[in-house]
From TrEMBL:
<dbReference type="Pfam" id="PF00085">
    <property type="entry name" value="Thioredoxin"/>
</dbReference>
<feature type="domain" description="Thioredoxin">
    <location>
        <begin position="1"/>
        <end position="105"/>
    </location>
</feature>
<dbReference type="InterPro" id="IPR005746">
    <property type="entry name" value="Thioredoxin"/>
</dbReference>
<comment type="similarity">
    <text>Belongs to the thioredoxin family.</text>
</comment>
<keyword id="KW-1015">Disulfide bond</keyword>
<keyword id="KW-0676">Redox-active center</keyword>
<keyword id="KW-0813">Transport</keyword>
<dbReference type="InterPro" id="IPR036249">
    <property type="entry name" value="Thioredoxin-like_sf"/>
</dbReference>
<protein>
    <recommendedName>
        <fullName>Thioredoxin</fullName>
    </recommendedName>
</protein>
<dbReference type="InterPro" id="IPR017937">
    <property type="entry name" value="Thioredoxin_CS"/>
</dbReference>
<keyword id="KW-0249">Electron transport</keyword>
<dbReference type="InterPro" id="IPR013766">
    <property type="entry name" value="Thioredoxin_domain"/>
</dbReference>
């Protein structure tokens, strides 16, 4: 699967409609973003069962703000609609591959239980 461009209107559906989603927040003027783009694209070809999406922070400023993006590139990983990874910085191919494996291996029942325990309500 190739990467898709996400807009504010499509973001929620993309996250909830796919078991695993990786989102790259980027901008055209950002050198590290341009360096990470081919790594992200190659990983999308290697993992066709994962949705790889990109958010142009210039074109989708309100979405970037809602996601609290303060540095780019920022990579977010979602599993079963839950944000399980968020970190700024371009990853090398090996680190991205390892991250994908870790996200795949997550026990989401355990993750949800941890979230529930940390919720003060």
């Amino acid at each position: 699967m190739t990467t898709i461009d996400l807009t504010e209107d499509a973001f929620s559906a993309a996250i909830t409609d796919h078991p695993i989603v990786l989102v790259d927040f980027w901008a055209a003027w950002c050198g590290p973003c341009r360096s990470f783009a081919p790594v992200f694209e190659a990983a999308s070809a290697e993992h066709p069962n994962i949705l790889f999406a990109k958010v142009d922070t210039e074109a989708q400023a309100s979405l970037a703000a809602a996601a609290q993006i303060t540095s780019i590139p920022t990579l977010m990983g979602f599993k079963d609609g839950v944000l399980v990874y968020s970190q700024p910085g371009a990853l090398p191919a090996k680190a991205l591959h390892e991250l994908i494996g870790k996200i795949r291996d997550l026990d989401m029942d355990h993750v949800r239980a941890q979230i529930q325990e940390s919720d003060p309500r």
